[in-house]
Design a protein that fits this description.
Helix content is 27%, strand content 35%. With 83 residues, it is of the alpha+beta class.
Amino acid sequence: MYQIELMPRAIKDLKDLPKLDVKKIIEKIKVLENGLSGDTKKLTNFSPEYRLRVGNYRVLFEIENHKIIIYRIKHRKEIYLQK
């Protein structure tokens, strides 16, 4: 069982998305509380270390001591761009 924590940037990302997509993303995030699902992948050479796929959106997060820390939630075309 994991505790979910959204970083301020992830909350801002959610506010910028369409309401219907936000609802789907939140439902998928809640599923993470019970363990990693099939739409979750460990990333290589990238930080944060994990991503959750929700349609065309990606949720980037890390796991620390039974806590899932969500850093970013963006469209798949934008999420991996380094600035």
